[in-house]
């Protein structure tokens, strides 16, 4: 449920001025005002995609959890409500309207609104990528002491993920019995990781042979590490025992 700006007071009525204007019920088209943006696109994956946008819409804030330390009425946070309707879904399910809320006003170039919802659809790829980096490549596994070390480890993980993407054309499909076969152009990084060693064995190595060298001097004998370690969070499972 969203509301438009209240506007000016009507009549000589005394008291507090109104805070909420016309109501916008997402499921009731009769309450929808004239959109500030309307477009129709044709996509191969979803068919005809129609988009509408309503600007300066806000919701009623019933609780004060986010602004408990402030006084007065809760703030009104205005934004842009974007409605999206597609002709069909890839899996064959019946499509339903999708509503998004953007904290930004409608830009001068209304085509930017179509860019907003297209970025929202890509969030699934981003979420799966972060999950793969954490679970398969060990991004969150080491407990590093310094931020610089964490940045270096992050770049190493990014380089490893990039290597899996580059070696995908040479990867041989190696799937478990319960996994479905997929085209070569859509092989996931997890499938490539299973055959990464075999693919690298058949690849050409343009680098020169490694040069042997002696180990560094390391810490002097009797020296102590003077960098104070960071206390890592224990978690709730430790306290529940």
TrEMBL record:
Residues 11-22 have a biased composition (Basic residues). Residues 216-230 have a biased composition (Low complexity). GO terms for molecular function: DNA binding; transposase activity. Residues 25-36 have a biased composition (Basic and acidic residues). This is Transposase IS4-like domain-containing protein. It comes from the Bacteria. Residues 1-36, 205-241 are annotated as: Disordered. GO terms for biological process: DNA transposition. Residues 118-161 form the Transposase IS4-like domain. It comes from Paeniglutamicibacter cryotolerans.
């Amino acid at each position: 449920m969203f509301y438009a700006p209240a506007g000016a007071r009507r009549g000589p009525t005394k008291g507090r001025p109104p805070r909420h204007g016309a109501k916008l019920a997402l499921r009731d088209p009769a309450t929808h005002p004239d959109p500030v943006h309307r477009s129709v696109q044709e996509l191969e994956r979803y068919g005809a995609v129609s988009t509408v946008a309503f600007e300066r819409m806000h919701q009623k804030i019933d609780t004060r959890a986010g602004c408990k330390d402030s006084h007065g009425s809760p703030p009104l946070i205005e934004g842009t409500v974007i409605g999206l309707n597609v002709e069909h879904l890839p899996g064959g399910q019946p499509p339903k309207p999708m509503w998004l809320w953007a904290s930004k006003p409608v830009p001068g170039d209304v085509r930017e609104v179509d860019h907003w919802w297209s970025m929202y659809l890509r969030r699934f790829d981003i979420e799966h990528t972060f999950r793969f980096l954490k679970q398969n490549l060990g991004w969150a596994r080491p407990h590093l002491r310094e931020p610089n070390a964490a940045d270096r480890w992050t770049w190493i993980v990014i380089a490893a993920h990039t290597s899996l993407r580059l070696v995908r054309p040479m990867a041989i499909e190696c799937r478990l019995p319960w996994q479905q076969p997929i085209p070569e152009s859509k092989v996931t990084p997890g499938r490539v990781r299973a055959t990464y060693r075999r693919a690298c064995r058949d690849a050409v190595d343009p680098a020169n042979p490694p040069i042997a060298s002696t180990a560094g001097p390391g810490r002097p004998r009797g020296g102590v590490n003077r960098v104070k370690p960071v206390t890592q969070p224990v978690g709730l499972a430790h306290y529940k025992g």
